[in-house]
Write a structure and sequence with these properties.
alpha+beta, flat, 13% strand, 7 helices, single chain
Amino acid sequence: MLYLDLLATVGSLAAIKAEAWGMPGPVVGVALVGPLGGAVAFGKRLLSNRRSRELRAELSACEAAMAEQHEARALASTAAERIKIARELHDVVAHRVSVMTLGVGAGRMIMEKNPMRARETLHAAEETGRQTLTELQRMLVLLQAATGTVRGTEPQPGLADLPELLARTRESGLGVELVEDGNPISVGEALEISVYRIVQEALSNTQRHASARSAHVALRWGPGLLDVLIRDDGRARGAVVLGPGLIGIRERAALFGGSFSAGALPGGGFEVRARLPAATPARPAAHLRSSTRNSA
């Protein structure tokens, strides 16, 4: 109707002008309406074609988004199921470790009084240990598949590998030093791996987000505690946003009953701190100091 109104208005104005100029109004009106009508029809087709393209583009975008969501739900469902299975395997492993521990303890206690029975008990504990190792390997495969990670057979890194990590960090352009305070103690392989990963992830965050020129890593040993601090001189980041890196550090600290904090420093820069319980028998200080001190 809008287009018809427009044609009528234009035709009327043309007729009025034509009569003022001494020309027959109806003739001029008919002469103008034809071209104008064609132009309007052409414009309508253009608008219709453009709207069709827009609708097709919107439809394609919606279909792509729906496909993405469907794939994400499928991956999440698969990961959840694998984690569920891994938890069930964990219960099996925990039970078998308990049986194995009891068997070894019983064998030790009856070794002198009944050597034959002790050997049978220890043999059963050995077999349980083999089965437990198999279940652990299956659980690891499931967890790797659920998280999309693949790990080789190389040994996991520990505190003695920190200097190498810092050397690689320097090669990538970030100056970094490592210092150690207090008396190092043996903390076990699991905690050593977590300390290494905390430092690794904090330095990766610095390189990705802080535009820093240098960083400082400190291991501070206290009575039953290990403080891990990573500071940089990058730009202030404002409110702390827990991305995957910081969440991973927080979860590693929580796993050992420790604490985690992260935030901008008053004078500029950013600090990540993890406090981890380390109440285990002492070991010679030189074991760790020789690997980490003066590694800047």
